Amino acid sequence: MGVRKMKFKYRVGTAIASGALMMNLLVPAAFADTTVDISGNGSDSNNTVNVTNSNDTNITQDNNLTVKLKIKAKSSTGGNEANDNTGGNVSIDTGNANSTVNVTVLAGDNNADVQTCPCNSTSNTTVSGNGSNTTSNATVNNSNNVTANQTNKAKVKGKIKAKAKTGKNKTNNNTNGSVNTTTGNATDNVTVNVTGPANNLNITP
């Protein structure tokens, strides 16, 4: 009697790729209080005061993710031989062949948290003690500008091969006995998960 057994083979391939870009900007500086004093000027004078306070915040985020996958997973079982046996039972029992590939790609994120300046400053303008027929003009301008540019690119290219084989057992020229051949299952499992890129911008005044 001849008995041949082959254990199953199991192959798992796992790949994870990710990228992220975070930016935290804090602009605590405030506009100083502005005081304009037009005084002590002679008669018939023209007095002009222009004050400009500006705060500019520029944000640029570029995130490029390129993933190239080349994965091979192979498993096999079987290929047993039980030949030329006489006067006994012959049995071949092979296990299962499983090939599993799991791929997870997390594309890059752009995250920006920006706290702009507290620009609620006060402006005090005083016009006093000038001569007759004077003309006085005072202008105060406060501006706060935030410009954000976020670019996110993700490219995923893959070549995945998963192969499982079973069988190819041979029982030849066996006499005066029973012959039993049992072949296991062959399965392929391939999973690819791709999460696209995201841009997140949070501006706190």
Short description:
This protein is mostly beta strands and 205 residues long.
Strand proportion: over 45%
Radius of gyration: 40 Å
- What structural category characterises the helix and strand content? mainly beta
By DSSP, the count of extended strands is 11
How many domains is the backbone divided into? 1
Q: Which whole number gives the mean pLDDT?
A: 78
Order of helices and strands: EEEEEEEEEEE
Distance between the termini: 86 Å
Describe the protein in words.
With 205 residues, the chain is mostly beta strands. The chain has one domain. Helix content is 0%, strand content 69%. It has no helices and eleven strands. The strands form four sheets. Strands 2, 6, 10 and 11 form a four-stranded parallel beta sheet that branches. Strands 1-5-9 form a three-stranded parallel beta sheet, with no helix packed on it. The protein has a two-stranded parallel sheet with strand order 3-7. The protein starts with a strand and ends with a strand.
Main attributes of the structure:
205 residues; mainly beta; four-stranded parallel β-sheet; three-stranded parallel β-sheet; 11 strands; 69% strand; disordered N terminus
What's the helix and strand layout?
Elements: E1 2-6, E2 9-26, E3 34-39, E4 46-76, E5 90-94, E6 97-115, E7 123-128, E8 135-165, E9 179-182, E10 186-195, E11 198-204
Parallel strand pairs: 1-5, 2-6, 3-7, 4-8, 5-9, 6-10, 6-11
